[in-house]
Hints:
6 copies of one chain form a homohexamer. The first copy, chain A, is mainly alpha-helical. Helices cover 47% and strands 4% of the residues of chain A. Chain A is built from 9 helices and 4 strands, in the order E-H-H-H-H-H-H-H-H-H-E-E-E. A 3-stranded mixed β-sheet of chain A has the order 2-4-3, with no helix packed on it. Chains in contact: A-B, A-C, A-D, A-E, A-F, B-C, B-D, B-E, B-F, C-D, C-E, C-F, D-E, D-F, E-F. At the A-B interface, helix 3, helix 5, helix 8, helix 9 and strand 2 of A face helix 3, helix 5, helix 8, helix 9 and strand 2 of B.
Amino acid sequence: MFFRTNKYQFDAKPERPDPVFAKMLQEPLGGQWGEISVMMTYLFQGWNCRGPAKYKDMILDIGTEEIAHVEMLATMIARLLETSPVEAQEDAAMNSIVGAVMSGSRLEDVIVAGMNPQHAIVSGSGAMPADSVGFPWNAKYTIASGNLLADFRFNVTAESQGRLQVSRLFNLTQDPGVRKMLSFMIARDTMHQNQWLAAIEELQAEGLEETPCPSNFPQSMEDQRVSYQFWNCSGTTESGEGRWAAGTSPDGKGQFEYIGEPQPMSDDTGLLGPVDTRLYGTPPAPVPKKAAE
Amino acid sequence: MFFRTNKYQFDAKPERPDPVFAKMLQEPLGGQWGEISVMMTYLFQGWNCRGPAKYKDMILDIGTEEIAHVEMLATMIARLLETSPVEAQEDAAMNSIVGAVMSGSRLEDVIVAGMNPQHAIVSGSGAMPADSVGFPWNAKYTIASGNLLADFRFNVTAESQGRLQVSRLFNLTQDPGVRKMLSFMIARDTMHQNQWLAAIEELQAEGLEETPCPSNFPQSMEDQRVSYQFWNCSGTTESGEGRWAAGTSPDGKGQFEYIGEPQPMSDDTGLLGPVDTRLYGTPPAPVPKKAAE
Amino acid sequence: MFFRTNKYQFDAKPERPDPVFAKMLQEPLGGQWGEISVMMTYLFQGWNCRGPAKYKDMILDIGTEEIAHVEMLATMIARLLETSPVEAQEDAAMNSIVGAVMSGSRLEDVIVAGMNPQHAIVSGSGAMPADSVGFPWNAKYTIASGNLLADFRFNVTAESQGRLQVSRLFNLTQDPGVRKMLSFMIARDTMHQNQWLAAIEELQAEGLEETPCPSNFPQSMEDQRVSYQFWNCSGTTESGEGRWAAGTSPDGKGQFEYIGEPQPMSDDTGLLGPVDTRLYGTPPAPVPKKAAE
Amino acid sequence: MFFRTNKYQFDAKPERPDPVFAKMLQEPLGGQWGEISVMMTYLFQGWNCRGPAKYKDMILDIGTEEIAHVEMLATMIARLLETSPVEAQEDAAMNSIVGAVMSGSRLEDVIVAGMNPQHAIVSGSGAMPADSVGFPWNAKYTIASGNLLADFRFNVTAESQGRLQVSRLFNLTQDPGVRKMLSFMIARDTMHQNQWLAAIEELQAEGLEETPCPSNFPQSMEDQRVSYQFWNCSGTTESGEGRWAAGTSPDGKGQFEYIGEPQPMSDDTGLLGPVDTRLYGTPPAPVPKKAAE
Amino acid sequence: MFFRTNKYQFDAKPERPDPVFAKMLQEPLGGQWGEISVMMTYLFQGWNCRGPAKYKDMILDIGTEEIAHVEMLATMIARLLETSPVEAQEDAAMNSIVGAVMSGSRLEDVIVAGMNPQHAIVSGSGAMPADSVGFPWNAKYTIASGNLLADFRFNVTAESQGRLQVSRLFNLTQDPGVRKMLSFMIARDTMHQNQWLAAIEELQAEGLEETPCPSNFPQSMEDQRVSYQFWNCSGTTESGEGRWAAGTSPDGKGQFEYIGEPQPMSDDTGLLGPVDTRLYGTPPAPVPKKAAE
Amino acid sequence: MFFRTNKYQFDAKPERPDPVFAKMLQEPLGGQWGEISVMMTYLFQGWNCRGPAKYKDMILDIGTEEIAHVEMLATMIARLLETSPVEAQEDAAMNSIVGAVMSGSRLEDVIVAGMNPQHAIVSGSGAMPADSVGFPWNAKYTIASGNLLADFRFNVTAESQGRLQVSRLFNLTQDPGVRKMLSFMIARDTMHQNQWLAAIEELQAEGLEETPCPSNFPQSMEDQRVSYQFWNCSGTTESGEGRWAAGTSPDGKGQFEYIGEPQPMSDDTGLLGPVDTRLYGTPPAPVPKKAAE
């Protein structure tokens, strides 16, 4: 069960409104690699966890923290969409969304062109669970397979893509209040990348999982002729110059082999049998008209 | 530019038709972690690559191989949906899709109940770019950020989730022809997990990227107070027993710290300014009716 | 069966073209709370209606009217995207979409930046069944549950959200022709809010449904200990100051009770059983490698 | 900021596994009217709230409670997908997902046909944020307009549709453990319907909003000729027999009028101007070939 | 503006309920090539039409007829989901949806496994605007480009795919009432295929459009070296045996040429310039850490 | 199986960067009628083909060529998003994405307002498999029914809509490098329209399929009373002036008949039976409260 306090994990206060940046900041809120994605991913991984208790507890703790991150971003966006106290006194008509449109001056044209119109029409200057082009968040961004190594690898990815996007956004604004919050989030992403890498170490140290994942499928049942071969599917061989083309494989179980001119291992040419005539697919040769009785 | 041969990379021949398993086998074809996803992900990562040539070439080579995997799975599904030569002679009416429905016997009821109806109505006993519940593939499954470490971490994940799903499917069929193809694919996933892990090693060895990713954002600009803290957001402390709660962090740059009873670092309570009255949001107190002039 | 006349329910004539507002006006056409949504919702509610004939007839009548609203909006948008007669004579090159791009002057830059590019590339200056950020309409916006109270409550919502959005759009344009049409639509939404509220009254007066909906589920079978409790899931108690925290409940069947410090009613901690080893989920402790035979 | 306890709000323990019902129970978890929808809707309404503090606090409190409902449902589904302790001893092969498929007996055929294959292949016997046909949850189910009356009307709808669906599901299972949890949820929905109805009363009592919503748009600016007219768009007149066709409107501001044979109020026939020839739309008459210079 | 009569275009009466076929029949209602798709496509093509009046009128007439087809299918599905009068007397418990589940006998298991659970839980035995796997209809199925030849070609396709699917469904049921309605729809699709083919003839006869479409783009500005070449991108040459490999092209403007061993026409190898370092993409060689000031 | 060469089919080199046009150029890459759509459509049609070998080979050859088109567009977009060599020397800060935002001058405001923010935040100046409003490509754009006539009609449409969109884009840029590539693509679309028209001729000449499609459904089983009737569903009769209203139908099997004032052919008024009371739909009259036992 969950509880909340009305205090925020960290400040979410911009120095001044900026509806164009508000649009951009939707990406780490409701985008594929945003905070809703990690919140939902960690909560579902935790609830579905059938492994040791410390993992379940750890996953749910970070999932719970992420709700607070969603909260901060939503609030920051809502504030970027409102008239700032200072500007309000000077020229409310020009600095609010409606004012910008109605005033018709050039700066406002640009604002209107660059902002997300749904911030005015749909949410009434509130945040939305959507990304920077207005595409709604969806649950395909939630990954929970039941295999913790496969999932923790996803989590490292999510914290990497997320930190990458927030770092880019840091460079796309000069507002000190926004940057302060982003620097907090970047730091938490540093922790969370490290956390998931540490959890992967732990999983392997405890013998619960290893590469190739899932390790409990007997490797003797895979087609071991091709388990460590690199297939060069082009005429050029620059792909042969990397670590992946020779030497011991990272799982320590094989030697990489570079196949410079790979050949099909099959004579199968993909020919299919004839179609059931009652499905009206095109047959190899004309057939009588027919319907089921 | 691309070319093809009509030979397949590997056999895609089931021993007998099985429309219910055909439905399940759509997952590694058109599902989130299926072959279309890795094909598109690797091709886009390659085309967008601005790093050293050997990476670009390697990524595109594997992307090209994945087209052949899509080809094998599509063909296998089409064959699982057709009447097998042997059975056709005995009782065509009962073994085809339409026959199963029309015959009305109990076995056929089960087949109809369990198969994907679009395999009959929409594709006419062909494969579809959709998953095992019929949800169409979409390009959000394609990840290409321009940062190779963030992306290679995704690729390791994709090969892990993919190998996990194919291993599960191996256990859900007894058809020797299907299992033969799946064992080939599982082996290629073994290679590809190793390949991306090796590529991550190489990226780091060459000084191009490291943890925390992206490493070119100056860590001095993140809020370093919280860069290595675990926040325990629950009343229980089992999350404190893992590798992530103490010791040196995997990036070698910090010491994990376990915050057992974390407190908000802010007095921000999320209060927002008043809404522009012409947006008709609910205000703190009644306001006059108004429209823009 | 349906018929049409080529006369419009009301004028859909802007005074001059405005491609940026055309983008915004897609929201009440193809957005979540737009006219396509109510058209489809009412038609499906009507066709699926198993209640008294007067409801079925009424629902289908309003559904039919909504097709005319879709028609007006689509036409208005197409006209906002075309070169106006007056301007065409003066400077056709600059006022059409292509002209705006090619001329390269600043005003045109702004127009191009702010318009929906699909209005040029995809629809060739026609309306599209999509919203103001180009997200396509989808049938999840269609609600028809078979329970008329649940559905009429949705309908009141739809007419409220719709009227809210159109009122906001009224403030975002100064074109007299556009405003004239919007004021007609706002008036119809006034009617339709009242209509659904009246229909809810009628349903209850006739004993067909009441709160809590569905009223035909025996309330004796719900866990009546918590049927009228407010759970305060935060440390603050401002939520205790409202109508919902004390007094008789609106259904007249209970007394609101404010639970200031709610506690879990269960000792369930969510622990799950072990996973089937052939699904390769992470187990509590290492298990032997295994595949189905 | 958010915290959790590892105790559940209520028991989520089925008496025995039932993968077919697990599929159905995804609807109130990840469906359009499920618990994720209300959780996200209330949290976003709360974070975006610019009205009086008691509303913001109340909305966030119920949003926080809903996280616990998501938790219960996810756990219940995961348990419905696992082998029960008793059955495991008797016949593990037949009662688990993989066992059911491999054993090939008729009961298992039915289970496989009726369950969601992604519960085996994708989530490894865990819950997913998707509905009963496997369609992923998406953020369009989250409604937060900034206008509390419009939104509370949605909330009443959500609690009505949700209670309706859970009541139907109560009738589709006989498992006492499942029914116990559903009866708790039905009771909470009773409270929440009442809560939002009470909040609507309060909003109106405080003069913050009323019908027609939004009430701050001056009704004098709508086309008042049609504000209270019912248009009978069919040849039949059963729609004239209801409360909505005569008498004072529920907002108390008008008299319903029944228009039995409505006529278009416009001579507009929807004719459009010619297309810019460089967009290659079909013109009224042939034009010269042309491209921009 | 639109009107309706309560008479149906044609009978929509099944002989008996069949929830499994009801699921399948969702495809021609709410599937990609179903009646909602053509209804919306034709209406939008008509409203956006800037060509001669007879086309606009014709397109809107057929669009209006399609609403009646949606109506018939929705009603048929609702009836397939209800208890038939005869069976109701004998054994209501077993023939309704809930009864089937609760009775627990084998036939009912099959029904439950094969039906769409949302027909019970969500729509309460009503039709839904979704396809046979429950995927909701979306507006990407609506095509209206402003170019009537491009669009009429789509319309011919839609009537072909639609007639194909309905013909398949005819073979998947034996209910005389259902077949009667389907045979009506198949006949209308015969008309509509012919209608769009005739309209294409007319467009060309009137000089409004021709192949290659759009014909108003000057063909002199395309790269005419490759305008009539077939590129054989495989090692096999069976593709050289068809009408498309030699002879005059159907537009009468060129001669097909078969390129047996095509070569790239460019030396471009796709190398990209370096990334802006503040976007943190992987560079060709290590760069200093950096953030925008 | 597939191979690639690192040479491109044609040059993909813009003269200078243009992030706003890069956004627009996403349409023919990842839009509904873009190159990914035809690539996937042709590959799936080919893999699923059960007709004569020359068709299968031809379809797969063109599908393979389309991969090269995807490659060219992706590369062109990536180059439009980068700093050009010349400009880089002069003023890197202003011409890159980040520079544009940070510099804050007016030209840059416009660029930021008009570009796709995900080109900076998500892809790091790379192409994305999405359209010009950022909507992700999805597999519903892939059509493969098993009936080659139905599918080739789709293919003609795709090449028409695609050529139309690229022609429009040609008019929306003045960059010679971009125009050069577009003129190549327009020429290939000329070929491909002709190719599919030729393939349709061939199919019919070989007796494999004809109008009405599917021709193997016995036309005697359709309701032939309405097979060649035009229903005028409006009060106006301009629709009677076209080729589709009189004369021999294009399939040569009927005579068009114009029904000026069509009447319903049924007395069905769509009334439904009562709902199962345990589904809590609204009944015709009050019923007792009830739940399943």
